[in-house]
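Q: Hi! First time doing this. I have a protein sequence and I read that you can turn it into a structure. Is that right? Here it is:
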Amino acid sequence: MSRQALLDKLVAVVTGAATVAIIAPLVSIIYEVASRGISVIAHVGLIDFLTQPPPPPGAGLGGIGPAFTGSLLLTLLSSAISIPVALGLALLAVEYPHTWIARAVRGLVKALLEIPTIVISMIVYSLLVIPMGGPSILAGAVALAIVMLPYTTSYVETYLENVPWIYREAGYAIGMKKAQVAVRIAMGIARRGVAVGIVMGSPEHSARQHRYSSPLVL
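A: Yes, that's right. Below is the predicted 3D structure, encoded as structure tokens:
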């Protein structure tokens, strides 16, 4: 066996061992959570598990109703706020590529990406929580929507930029207005990518989810 072949096998063995060492704890955690969680769900019932509140300490098994409902409402409300705004900003940046509008949109997106989420929470706290007299799901949704906005805008803008301009020119040739070309042609062709961008931009479906908890602290 040549020296190069021996080195290749050694690298393969070391890489495999490192992969197993990394994956094994993750598999163990998933198994532990799944085994215990399934037994609780089987005992309580799926509907009660999703709707009932957790019991007091030592009072038996309960559910995750408040946490589940709150997360669901936050996701829906923050998405309803951020997605239309993100789509509009992405369309402006793509359809007016060499204007101050595109520069302003891209500057806003970059600025929001650089702002720490705790700063966003302080701004929302000052503008919404204090005037409303206390925390609310609306304030949390607005904070998460601001955090979600630059990611969704960036993803959607990338997919819209990949639509060939020849399709837009064909729309103009048959008398369509710019808004019609942007919505019907550009968005229509890139609809699958836009859907992916919306999903990837959502904090509840992102690996950055734990970073997004700070806007809800205040």
